[in-house]
Each structure stands twice: as structure tokens, then as C-alpha cells.
């Protein structure tokens, strides 16, 4: 009887331990998602880049951060950087997973985008090892009127890779990469703005609610471009994140038959002239929603983002919703 009791206790403890490891209501910021074999992986803002795994997109296990130690190039490039890394982007190409990531100083465009690659995302695989390729592009206060954060890789119809990025300042930018995706392939002094809240270049949008003056009031960031049917769709987040119950974050959308734009909203307004149709905004349950990615699993499109939970002190939580299409425009199904 003692042996049966001991086995029962050990089984109960094992179940409790697994329940503690697998969480359904996880706090994330700026999430992206990808699937390898039967396992889903989320990468998001956090110390060393936070990483989660799941078999069902419901129960999540926290994995070790991508970087246990801050990349030395980032420490050298960004004063005060302590390995808290923002807004990663994950993609797969020719046997490698490409993880672009942001290092920055909050409220300043002292920022850079780096890149790490891995042959697998399965942490138990002996081949699991992130190889850091260092800086891809950097912004400098007083020199570049854009902010090198919030990267997203998108491939044109001819196979040419581009990186869309940006936050505040002059808005969202699009830059061509070399075929191997390891470096920029054009003059960064001439890269175009594809989305902004300014209706004209001379318009001044002041900072609000105590937002850093350096960042200004051009509250647009987190670009993500997704190809569906004959259009490229530019998702972006506007207004203010990171303020808990005072967050006003919301997502906007525009589309174009050309990757380079112009991206038009549902009213035909160009996103590089202040356009952008609201895709999803906050409500009584979520103070604000934003910084999304889009992925396709088993023929179904999903949008992943974070929302500030009104039922839990405005803490940032993971949300994954189905994305349907109506008249070639995305709709979130809840």
C-alpha cells in the first residue's frame, strides 16, 4: 500500500509540475509565431529575446532566452544596453531560421537591428545553436530621421528580400537586403517612407501623454507585410503602447499590388500620407491592442498580437485570432 501511495503522490506532483510549466494566459509583448514540425514557437520582447513553445497554441512553455549574454556588438553600439531585446521577427529560408531583433534606448532613435540564425528551433536538438550575425542596420540621433527597430522580413514577387521597420520619427521604412539576407543592399540615406501619421511631410505632430520629446508624436510603428492573393498588406500599430490601462494602441491596414507601395486604405488614402484603416482597436476588455504578426497554419491565416488586459491591471497578454478575408480585406474573427 505504501508503494501505491508513493506512486500516486509522485504522479500528482508530476501533473502539478507540468501544469505549472504549461501556461495558457501568458504575458508577452510584440509576439511573432512560427511552426516547426508539430511545435509552435513564439518569440517576443524580453531579456535576451523571450521564447515560448506549444503543441496546440493554447498551452505554452517558457524556453530559455535566445541570448543568455548580451551580444557584444549591441553593448558597444547602444549605450546602457543590458540585453533587454525588442520586437523580434522570425522566418525560414534555405535550411535556416532567421531571427531579426531590435536593440534600442526607449524614446530615442539610438537603435539597431541585428540578426541571428539557427538550423532548428527545437531546443532539445543537439544542433540547436543561435549564430549571431551582428548589426544589419542602425539609426543615429541627429543623423537619421528614422528609428531602426520593429523589423519584419518580406520577400517580393521576384524573390528579393526586404526589411520593413520603424517607429515614430519619419515613420515606417522599407530597405532591400542582399540575397543571403545578412546585410543591406542599398543606400540607407535614400530608403523610402511607406507609412506615417503625417498627412504631409511638413506637418508637426507633438508628443503627448509624457511620451519622450525625441520620439515626437508620429505614433506609428510595428510594421508587418503579408502577401495574400494579388496584394501585399501592410499592418501597423498606431497611438501608444506600454501604458497599461492608459494604452491606446490599435492596428491599421493598407494594401498594394507592389511591395514598395503606395499602400492604400479602404478609402483610397495613402498610408505614407496619413492613411490607414482601423483593423482592431481597444474595447472594454482590452485597453489597447497591437504589434501584430501574421502566419498561416494548415491553410488558415492567424494574426498574433498583444493586448492590455482590462481584467488584469492592463498587463500585456498574448492574443491569437483567426484572420478571414472579405473583398480582399482582412477581418479578425473572434
Features of the shown structure:
334 residues; mainly beta; 5-stranded antiparallel sheet; 2 helices; 8% helix; globular
Structure commentary:
- The chain is globular.
- Residues 1-20 have low confidence and may be disordered.
- It has 2 helices and 22 strands.
- It is mainly beta and 334 residues long.
> Within the largest sheet, what's the order of strands?
1-6-5-3-2
Rg over CA atoms, rounded to whole Å, is 20 Å
Order of helices and strands: HEEEEEEHEEEEEEEEEEEEEEEE
Q: How many β-strand stretches? A: 22
- Specify the structural class: mainly beta
Uncertain residue segments: 1-20
What is the CA–CA distance across the termini? 51 Å
The amount of beta strand, in percent, is 35-45%
Helix and strand arrangement:
Layout (H helix, E strand, L loop, with lengths): L1 H20 E2 L8 E5 L2 E6 L1 E2 L2 E5 L5 E4 L8 H6 L6 E10 L2 E9 L6 E8 L12 E9 L12 E4 L5 E5 L6 E5 L16 E3 L24 E9 L2 E8 L11 E7 L20 E4 L5 E12 L2 E10 L5 E12 L2 E5 L1
Antiparallel strand pairs: 1-6, 2-3, 3-5, 4-7, 5-6, 7-8, 8-9, 9-10, 11-12, 12-13, 13-14, 15-16, 16-17, 17-18, 19-20, 20-21, 21-22
Task: Provide a quick synopsis of the model.
By secondary structure, this protein is mostly beta strands. The chain has helices spanning 2-21, 72-77, and strands at 22-23, 32-36, 39-44, 46-47, 50-54, 60-63, 84-93, 96-104, 111-118, 131-139, 152-155, 161-165, 172-176, 193-195, 220-228, 231-238, 250-256, 277-280, 286-297, 300-309, 315-326, 329-333. The strands form five sheets. A five-stranded antiparallel beta sheet has the order 1-6-5-3-2. The chain has a five-stranded antiparallel beta sheet with strand order 4-7-8-9-10.
Amino acid at each position: 500500500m505504501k508503494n501505491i501511495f508513493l506512486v500516486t503522490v509522485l504522479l500528482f506532483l508530476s501533473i502539478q509540475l507540468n501544469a505549472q510549466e504549461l501556461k495558457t494566459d501568458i504575458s508577452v509583448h510584440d509576439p511573432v509565431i512560427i511552426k516547426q514540425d508539430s511545435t509552435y514557437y513564439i518569440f517576443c520582447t524580453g531579456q535576451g529575446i523571450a521564447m515560448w513553445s506549444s503543441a496546440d497554441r493554447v498551452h505554452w512553455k517558457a524556453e530559455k532566452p535566445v541570448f543568455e549574454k548580451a551580444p557584444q556588438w549591441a553593448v558597444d553600439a547602444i549605450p546602457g544596453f543590458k540585453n533587454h531585446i525588442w520586437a523580434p521577427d522570425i522566418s525560414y529560408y534555405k535550411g535556416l531560421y532567421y531571427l531579426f531583433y531590435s536593440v534600442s534606448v526607449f524614446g530615442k532613435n539610438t537603435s539597431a537591428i541585428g540578426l541571428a540564425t539557427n538550423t532548428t528551433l527545437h531546443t532539445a536538438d543537439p544542433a540547436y545553436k543561435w549564430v549571431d550575425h551582428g548589426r544589419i542596420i542602425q539609426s543615429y540621433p541627429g543623423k537619421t530621421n528614422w528609428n531602426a527597430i520593429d523589423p519584419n522580413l518580406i520577400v517580393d514577387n521576384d524573390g528579393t528580400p526586404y526589411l520593413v521597420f520603424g517607429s515614430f520619427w519619419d515613420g515606417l521604412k522599407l530597405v532591400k537586403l542582399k540575397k543571403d539576407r545578412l546585410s543591406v543592399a542599398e543606400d540607407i540615406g535614400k530608403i523610402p517612407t511607406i507609412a506615417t501619421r503625417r498627412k504631409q511631410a511638413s506637418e508637426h505632430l507633438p508628443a503627448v501623454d509624457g511620451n519622450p520629446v525625441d520620439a515626437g508624436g508620429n505614433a506609428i510603428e510595428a510594421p508587418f507585410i503579408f502577401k495574400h492573393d494579388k496584394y501585399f498588406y501592410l499592418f501597423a500599430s498606431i497611438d501608444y503602447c506600454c501604458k497599461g490601462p492608459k494604452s491606446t494602441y490599435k492596428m491599421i491596414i493598407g494594401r498594394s499590388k507592389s511591395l514598395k507601395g503606395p499602400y492604400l486604405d479602404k478609402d483610397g488614402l495613402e498610408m505614407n500620407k496619413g492613411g490607414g484603416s482601423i483593423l482592431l482597436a481597444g474595447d472594454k476588455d482590452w485597453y489597447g491592442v497591437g504589434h501584430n504578426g501574421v502566419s498561416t497554419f494548415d491553410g488558415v491565416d492567424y494574426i498574433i498580437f498583444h493586448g492590455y488586459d482590462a481584467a488584469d491591471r492592463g498587463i500585456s497578454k498574448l492574443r491569437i485570432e483567426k484572420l478571414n478575408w472579405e473583398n480582399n480585406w482582412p477581418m479578425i474573427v473572434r
